[in-house]
Specification:
There is one protein chain. By secondary structure, the chain is α/β, with parallel strands linked by helices. It folds into three domains: about 140 residues, 3-Layer(bba) Sandwich (FAD/NAD(P)-binding domain), CATH 3.50.50; about 160 residues, Polyamine Oxidase, Chain A, domain 2 (Alpha-Beta Complex); about 90 residues, no CATH class. About 35% of the residues lie in helices and about 25% in strands. It has 17 helices and 18 strands. Strands 1, 2, 9, 10, 11, 12 and 18 form a seven-stranded mixed β-sheet that branches. The radius of gyration is 22 Å and the shape is globular. The chain starts with a strand and ends in a 22-residue tail after the last helix. Keywords: Oxidoreductase.
Length: about 450
């Protein structure tokens, strides 16, 4: 009996949509199954009363996002729809915001670092500069940082480099505990994306690319995939009460979910799948009756609140500074990022209680917030971002060298790159692995794209 599909993709986040897009271009019959009623995954945005609210990812960059920019160009998205943010990132210390984080000038301006720590930051930048070619965000396991955690790596420098730079960046943008996550993926990613001055957003919400990709695809939302079974030369999915067969399945879901779904995964895949743990993320969107922001000598996009200063928040994002269309004229929109240490408790708390706790904590940095805030929305992802633990870093090379099989995987965790670009690259890589096994049917009259990435040329 012939399979029902050439390829079934599980998950309509950026990895799944990219995978399906590439395979559809190659002439294969592809269907995407998404358990939620919307596409985008952690890149989802929604609209309410004139506000555009990003549930997950916050920005992309002019640098380090080559695959994303290629997709945008292919889909005809104008550069003007991806405007530069043009605001500073600051860290809170000694009662005020200190701008200049993610800026090379921090060695001179301080950005919250003491004079001795600035000297050590210069040492850190010199070391990464000397080894720049060995830092590859697509191969973090090969860097000279080895499998050191962020905290272990930071011990060679002044304490402030960890407490007021590495920890707040890791804790806010990645949701990481620096004692558990490897420094190599973080340094590789920061070197690629460059200073905050080059960060950009999507004009109409961070889900712009996801929505455009989904327009040309067969996407079934509200479809829960319960299990995937590898059979001889193909795979079978249980979707709701139905059974679907496909020549190939690509699991574009977090690693713990993929390990649960793929009930007979080959033994050599299991160590990496088990090692790719995730951190939960939680944030509260505050719809304001006026455009408030943390006081600062320069306009801010993000205020980082280090663990050394705050145990409730990790950051405050000024969404109406990210792009004015995020809020109606004369209004404001802030995102309050929860500190990773408190998220497990907040995940089970009533949403109103969670919002109140984060708003009270944020009033310290944004005077008048409690009186200006109206509606709140809580966004929680139990599988927020890949933790990039040392064990995963050590096992990645063997996982990436495995033979192509009926069930493949895609997601930012495959690249150990906690960013949407990691999901896009993983999707393109998964598509190339599928195509190495399957030939597109001649009847569709389509041809395989001239270039699809492999593990060696994905960068």
């Amino acid at each position: 009996m012939s399979p029902d599909l050439d390829v079934a993709v599980v998950g309509a986040g950026m990895a799944g949509l990219t995978t399906a897009h590439e395979l559809r271009r190659a002439g294969l019959e592809v269907r995407v199954y998404e358990q939620h009623e919307h596409v985008g995954g952690r890149m989802r945005s929604f609209r309410h009363a004139g506000y555009t609210i990003d549930e997950g990812a916050e920005q992309i960059s002019e640098r380090g996002y080559r695959a994303t920019w290629e997709l945008l160009a292919r889909l005809g998205v104008p550069r003007g729809d991806v405007p530069r943010i043009g605001r500073s990132v600051a860290v809170w210390r000694d009662g005020r915001a200190r701008p200049g984080v993610a800026d090379p000038a921090a060695v001179l301006t301080g950005a919250g670092l003491s004079p001795r720590a600035r000297f050590d930051l210069a040492r850190l930048l010199a070391w990464t500069g000397a080894h720049r070619r060995r830092f590859d965000a697509d191969h973090p396991e090969r860097t000279p940082a080895g499998a050191l955690t962020v905290r272990e790596f930071a011990r060679r420098y002044h304490r402030d480099v960890h407490d007021y730079l590495l920890q707040p960046v890791a804790g806010s943008f990645f949701g990481w505990d620096t004692a558990r996550s490897a420094v190599a993926p973080m340094l590789s990613l920061l070197l690629e994306v460059g200073p905050a001055a080059g960060w950009r957003t999507y004009r109409d919400g961070m889900d712009l690319l996801a929505r455009r990709l989904a327009e040309g695809l067969d996407v079934v939302t509200g479809a829960q995939v319960h299990e995937v079974v590898t059979e001889e030369g193909r795979a079978r999915l249980r979707v709701g009460n139905d059974s679907v067969t496909a020549r190939s399945v690509v699991l574009c879901v977090p690693a713990p979910v993929a390990a649960r779904l793929h009930v007979n995964a080959p033994a050599d895949e299991l160590p990496f799948l088990s090692a790719c743990t995730f951190t939960p993320t939680l944030k509260v969107s505050c719809l304001l009756d006026r455009p408030l922001a943390p006081p600062s000598r320069t306009p801010l996009y993000v205020l980082l609140t280090p663990d050394a200063e705050d145990d409730v928040l990790s950051a405050i994002i000024v969404d109406h500074a990210k792009h004015p269309d995020r809020a109606p004229v004369g209004k404001g929109l802030l995102t309050l990022m929860a500190d990773a240490r408190g998220i497990p408790e907040l995940l089970t708390a009533p949403e109103r209680q969670t919002a109140d706790r984060l708003v009270r904590a944020a009033t310290r940095y944004v005077p008048g917030l409690q009186t200006a805030a109206g509606r709140h929305f809580v966004h929680a992802f139990p599988h927020g971002l890949p933790e990039a633990a040392p064990e995963a870093l050590r096992g990645r090379g063997r996982f990436m060298a495995r033979a192509a099989r009926p069930v493949e995987y895609a997601g930012d965790w495959v690249m150990l790159r906690p960013a949407s670009e990691g999901a896009v690259r993983a999707g393109a890589l998964a598509a190339s692995r599928v195509l190495s096994r399957l030939r597109p049917p001649r009847t569709l009259g389509r041809t395989r794209p001239a270039t699809l990435p492999t593990e060696e040329n994905v960068s």
